[in-house]
Amino acid sequence: MGTTAVGQRAIHPGRIEVITGPMFSGKSEELIRRLKRAQIAKRRVACFKPDLDVRYHRTAIASHSAQTLDAMTVTNMEELKAVLMPMIDLVEVVGVDEAQFFDPSLIGFSNELMHLGKRVIIAGLDTSFTGEPFAPMPELLAIADEVVKLSAVCMQCGAPAVHTQRLGSSQSLVLVGAAGVYEARCRACFSPWADEHGSEQMELPVSAGSGR
Ligand SMILES: [Zn+2]
Q: How many other C-beta atoms are found inside a 10 Å radius of the C-beta of residue 70?
């Protein structure tokens, strides 16, 4: 009685699904597949992506293959909440792509949405090109009802790939690109501190995953 915070909880909680893996592992494709199935089931879907990924469309999520789905581009979690909450009663499924670029408040917000009865489907890189967990993904994996960890194909040897290899010497964690800037690599071929020629040493980014 009188528990205001819990008062908004739905009788039937929703669920949190996380799709993760390295680049080129089909995360966005799997997110799009799930959202399209939800749409076919007449569920009302809202999908968000951070305003960092300029590789194809500004208002759609795009996988490296040709699949796209309308998505709202937001600059940060505040804007995501500001866009979503006014229409929250109309939305049943919330998709988030490139979730590694959102700040850690995505974790608590995903829980809130789940308690409101929403199905939350999150896709994002599990590790950065330095091979370290990419905030806020580790916590999202921990609280998820379902985790799908995809592998890519090592572009050096063809083995299953769990790493994203950065080619060249830029140290920006938020530079988002596609083929040519990054490669999927297996553990044996992954070389996080060397450039594509295996020579130049790179320094550890000072504030990896600082949410900017
Ligand atoms: Zn390999």
A: 12
